[in-house]
Amino acid sequence: GRGEWHRWTGVRRSNRDPTSGRLTPAGTTTASIRRPTETVSALFGYGPKTLARILRMRRALDLARAGAPLAEVAVRSGYADQAHLTREVRELAGVPPTRLLAPARSRPQAT
After folding, report:
1. pTM over 0.90
2. CA dihedral for 55, 61, 62, 68, sign (positive or negative)
3. CA–CA distance, 97 with 74 (Å, rounded to integer)
4. pLDDT tens across 47-87, in order?
5. How far from 35 is each of 40, 42, 45, 62, CA to CA, in Å?
6. 10 Å Cβ neighbour count for 108?
7. Which is deepest, 51, 53, 84, 88, by most CB within 10 Å?
8. Helix (H, G, I), strand (E, B) or coil at 5
9. Cβ–Cβ under 8 Å, residues 71 and 64
10. What is the C-alpha to C-alpha distance for residues 53 and 87, in angstroms, rounded to an integer?
11. How far apart are CA 90 and CA 85, in angstroms?
């Protein structure tokens, strides 16, 4: 019966997660999926998905600075195509990748 199942699995009524009410195996604890998100948000100021997008953009820009063509950079960095790379960079940085990659001397000076 039911007692045998609890004995076999090590799950008891007292092993219920207080927030969800689900049974957990004996000797384990439950962790919230929010904890890593809150930690990343506290450290970087935005969530894990945004952090992943920014890191991917940085890798792409590093490849482009090394001289790879943008179409190749896009594919090697995990973008669907060059247009996807351009949209993502424009959304995250506010300017297209060609503007970020332009030599410093050709950029307008801040006044």
Report:
1. no
2. positive
3. 11
4. 889 999 999 999 999 999 999 999 999 999 999 999 999 99
5. 9, 10, 15, 31
6. 5
7. 88
8. helix
9. no
10. 12
11. 8
Query: Which one, of 13, 36, 38, lies nearest residue 26 by Cα?
Result: 13
- Which string of DSSP letters, residue by residue, matches 71-82? HHHHHHTT-SSH
Distance CA 107, CA 103 (A): 7
Place of tokens 């959304």: 91
Integer Cα distance of 56 and 26 in angstroms? 40
To the nearest 10 degrees (0 to 180), the angle between helices 82-93 and 48-65 is 120
Residues 6+ apart with CB under 8 A from 88: 53, 56, 57, 79
